[in-house]
């Protein structure tokens, strides 16, 4: 099979500025760190964001490059940088008359962002020939990357060599009864009224993370919104279909690292542990479902970690990045061909 080729039109990245460039990739947008590892890279990382999110974690790029890894990220279709293109998104009331324009982050199947991951993987195989591909994916991006890695497992030019999932959205919160009831309701509502808003409200987590809310990070609040991003029935139905596939069991051939916080807590201003818990997902559900992803799954638990472990307080963040990159380095040193 011939090696894939992709022509990318790189230009300065207006969101991160010096040290980063961006290029359109179909409906998605590829971002790269322009600094290269000393002596050349031993692998390439592709970061995938979650819902109500985009790539802004420049510190993640820096530690990856310091560890000898070329760094890229993808803003998926209708998310982040990709929404800044003319006509990329539009208010929901106009969608039926012009289905090419949809609300931010909206998809009806995770195969749609999965196609963006395939395009990004092909582009990186061409740009970084012969280098192992490490996909680092967060939250809904982690769920998307998991079902995508399962779907492309027979394609050597696309499938990842290593898969790192940072707090993947593997299940809904709540009891089995409540999860089952919501699943049944979504099957109907997601098909008949896909743009119906099924949940909305502020993201206390995002507000608390931003420097203006007392946090340590600066990000574009129109792309990662502290006021929250409505979850629509069609999108959540697509998420639930992927989660049920995980529950049945996937066969990801690549070694998988599943990282999560040690504890969950409420996404509430009254929670004194907002900066030390996953206040978005139930970490017990992540732990229960992680072994169903494939034959080679390693768990990484971070005491004091928040939902996006790369945004945790200094100690937990350093712990996550060190142990995650050590796992990647050990697997690369051992030879990912043998490990997978």
Write up what this structure looks like.
With 340 residues, the protein is α/β, with parallel strands linked by helices. It has a single domain, classed as Alpha/Beta hydrolase fold, catalytic domain (Rossmann fold, 3-Layer(aba) Sandwich). The protein is 32% helix and 16% strand. It has 9 helices and 11 strands. It has helices at 58-66, 111-127, 140-151, 176-192, 204-209, 233-248, 283-289, 314-334, 336-339; strands at 11-12, 20-25, 28-33, 43-48, 69-75, 133-138, 162-166, 197-199, 231-232, 256-261, 297-302. Strands 1-2-3-5-4-6-7-10-11 form a 9-stranded mixed β-sheet, sandwiched between helices. It has a two-stranded antiparallel sheet with strand order 8-9. Helix 2 crosses helix 3 and helix 4 (176-192) crosses helix 6.
What distinguishing features does this structure have?
single chain; 340 residues; alpha/beta; Rossmann fold; 9-stranded mixed β-sheet; two-stranded antiparallel sheet; 32% helix; globular
Give the topology, please.
Blueprint: E1 11-12, E2 20-25, E3 28-33, E4 43-48, H1 58-66, E5 69-75, H2 111-127, E6 133-138, H3 140-151, E7 162-166, H4 176-192, E8 197-199, H5 204-209, E9 231-232, H6 233-248, E10 256-261, H7 283-289, E11 297-302, H8 314-334, H9 336-339
Compact description:
The chain is built from 9 helices and 11 strands. The chain is of the alpha/beta class and 340 residues long.
Distance between the termini: 20 Å
- Overall structural domain count: 1
Query: What's the count of strands?
Result: 11
Bin the strand percentage: 15-25%
């Amino acid at each position: 099979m011939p090696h894939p080729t992709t022509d990318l039109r790189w230009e300065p990245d207006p969101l991160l500025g010096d040290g980063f460039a961006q290029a359109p990739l179909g409906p998605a947008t590829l971002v790269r760190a322009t600094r290269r590892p000393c002596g050349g890279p031993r692998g390439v990382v592709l970061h995938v964001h979650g819902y109500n999110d985009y790539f802004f974690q420049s510190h993640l790029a820096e530690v990856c490059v310091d560890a000898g890894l070329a760094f890229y990220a993808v803003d998926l279709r209708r998310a982040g940088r990709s929404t800044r293109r003319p006509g990329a998104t539009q208010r929901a009331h106009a969608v039926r008359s012009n289905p090419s324009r949809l609300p931010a982050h909206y998809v009806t199947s995770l195969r749609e962002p999965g196609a963006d991951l395939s395009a990004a993987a092909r582009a990186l195989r061409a740009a970084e020939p012969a280098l192992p591909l490490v996909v680092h994916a967060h939250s809904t991006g982690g769920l998307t990357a998991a079902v995508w890695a399962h779907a492309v497992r027979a394609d050597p030019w696309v499938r990842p060599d290593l898969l790192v999932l940072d707090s993947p959205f593997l299940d809904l919160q709540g009891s089995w009864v409540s999860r089952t009831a919501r699943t049944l309701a979504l099957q109907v509502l997601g098909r008949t009224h896909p743009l119906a808003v099924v949940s909305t409200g502020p993201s206390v987590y995002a507000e608390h993370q931003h420097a203006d809310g007392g946090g340590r990070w600066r990000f574009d609040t129109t792309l990662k919104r502290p006021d929250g991003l409505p979850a629509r029935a069609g999108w959540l139905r697509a998420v639930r279909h992927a989660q049920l596939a995980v529950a049945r069991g996937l066969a990801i051939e690549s070694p998988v690292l599943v990282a999560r916080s040690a504890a969950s807590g409420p996404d509430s201003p009254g929670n004194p542990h907002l900066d030390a818990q996953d206040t978005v997902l139930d970490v017990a559900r992540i732990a229960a479902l992680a072994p169903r992803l494939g034959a080679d799954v390693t768990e990484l638990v971070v005491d004091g970690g928040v939902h996006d472990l790369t945004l945790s307080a200094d100690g937990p963040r350093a712990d996550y990045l060190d142990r995650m990159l050590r796992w990647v380095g050990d697997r690369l040193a051992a030879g990912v061909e043998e490990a997978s």
